[in-house]
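U., I forgot to send this yesterday:
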Amino acid sequence: MAKPAPPPQKPRPARPLPPRAPKPKGPSARARISAIARDGSRSADYLLLKDETRVGTAVSDAEVKLDDDPFVAPVHAVLRFEGQQLYVEDAGSVNGVFLGFKERKIEGGGELRLGRQRLRIEWLPDDREMVGPDPIYGSPDPGYVAQAVQLFEGGIEGDVFPLRAGENIVGRAAGDITFPHDGYISSKHANIAISGKTISVKDLGSANGTFARIKNRAPVALGDLLLIGEQILRVDPGG
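Result:
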């Protein structure tokens, strides 16, 4: 007589796989600096991983290295976090650090960048007859109260453009001050308005922006544009 078949054995439960160790995460960037080409595209990214990041031609590869720009100093600027606020500081550069804006007031002696032009805005002396044997702009006074001095690399002065009380339009093809050979200036780029002792500058929707030179340091926010040498840098969220 055949033996009865043994009862089927219960399947052993599968052993759970050991949990995978999580991949170590690198430090998260507090912000990102995007280099913007003249056509508006993003050409490079720099992550701000530390409280302090230098900008220049001789900084480390982990910082904002702009070694192809002859107008950038070895250490040109410093980006520094104080708490959650990011600041940009000029590290004593000759050619300055410029911050983009839509509209702002500037003081006498302040500098602007429009396209490839760098302009210093100065008040004219109240008693212009004492500057030389003749009034600067002839007689009678046509209403000029200030001037825009063109600056080249190293602060060398070029042409001088008189500014009258009221509006003074700067552009490539139209305006009171024109730069017809500068392809980076829009047809009507900016308005320098003078009222009393106040100088206000407004960008007129230009393609490449209007920038003012900072004094020592300035706070920056997400979306702000910096102009260092010939390079436009945008402050973007980290990640």
